[in-house]
Amino acid sequence: MVRESSILLASVGNTRTAVALASRNRLDRVNRLRNGDPGPVIDSMRDCLNGTADAGPPLILVATVNRRVSDPLMARLDRDLHARVLRIGDDLPIPVGTCIDADARPGQDRLLNAAAAFDRFRQACVVIDAGTAVTIDFVDGEGTFHGGAIAPGAQMQLDALHQWTDALPALAFAAPDPEPFGPNTTQAMLQGVFHGIRGMVRHITERYAEAYRAYPAVIATGGDAHHLFDTDELVEHIVDDLTLHGMLAALRAGGDDVADDAAL
Description:
38% of the residues lie in helices and 24% in strands. 38% of the residues are buried. The two termini are 13 Å apart. It is α/β, with parallel strands linked by helices. The protein has a six-stranded mixed sheet with strand order 6-9-8-7-10-11, sandwiched between helices.
């Protein structure tokens, strides 16, 4: 239940769109839908609004790394939901400084994750997002985003092994069995992807710590984060929906007019 206008968040990723109802600093009714026709996303937003006590049309924040999907969605939001719509990055800045190449264009998800991690922990952080791709980024103790590393995600790696070989099967990613040796092809593939990503994260984090001359907090998010890092002592925090929390941080930092409209 919110006091004035409802706040809806839509984070359009490479594979899925996350939709949530936000109330102050809390996320409610988070739903993830595979990208495609915008109709199911609109329907999910309507479902989120059911039972809310609105004083006006909803405020919708949209973040995207996939304009092919988000542009048709944006075209329907005002018409179908009679909402005030703000684009993260265009209408609402992401509250994180950057120390990157002038022509660099990091994805909004990476910047929002960095903003959310610093907003929550207030210290230097390595931020891992394990989804379609795996990103490993660094934000320093002043809240400045330094960039990082991008690699194929777990499912993408498995799909590539199947696509580019003659005999390796199609697999859905899952954590492998605990024994150190993969006794069959399926387990060997899962072992390679699982431990390959964890080893990459550890090595890159050590490089960041050496360059920063201090050991940062290590935070993970993304659809595969729990599969990959629940048993990894390197990762101190797994925060679900970090990108959505970054959108709320952007809203809080967006100025009095936006904050008042959003009942924050």
